[in-house]
Amino acid sequence: MRVLRIDLDKHVAASHARMSATTGDIARVGLRRVNARWQREFLAYDPAVDLGSCRLPVLAVTGGKDLHIDPDQLEAIRAAAAGPVTISRPPDLTHTLRRQPGRPTLLAYRKELRRPVEPALIAEVVTWTAHALDKDR
Asked: Which of 4, 92, 120, 136 has a CA 20 to 30 Å removed from the CA of 106?
């Protein structure tokens, strides 16, 4: 996308607008058929509503190199949640929760998915879960 000088944010926004304008269950995007109904419901969902009624501990995780979700949204989760929120933003992890050194690219995601989730993140989730469960006793 960088070589073609495509602005990823504008491209994603245009894609979301096209999907939101569909009315059927299935839509064609390029040569692919996609579940348009699910996409519209996904785009319309506001997690802040549910977070506002959640008083349980929340672990919010995204990689610092996430190209799908702005890592700064972690603070929005903290602000919206009614209960305690722990934030984790490992710097070299992408949306797939795998390490990607250097500049992040969407093209690397397919190769990343062949590797396991970052072991240090799994350990962090296990530790957080044990701590959160211990607090409830």
From this structure: 120
Using an 8 Å Cβ cutoff, are 64 and 93 in contact? yes
Question: Mind listing the pLDDT tens digit for each residue in 62-100?
Answer: 999 998 888 999 999 999 999 999 999 999 999 999 999
Residue 102: exposure state from Cβ atoms within 10 A (0-12, 13-18, ≥19): exposed
Return the domain boundaries, the chain.
Answer: 1-45, 47-137
Residues 61 and 118: their CA atoms lie apart, in Å, by 12
Q: Are strands 32-35 and 26-29 parallel, antiparallel or unpaired?
A: antiparallel
Q: Is the sign of the CA dihedral 38, 42, 45, 50 positive or negative?
A: positive
Could you tell me how many residues make up the chain? 137
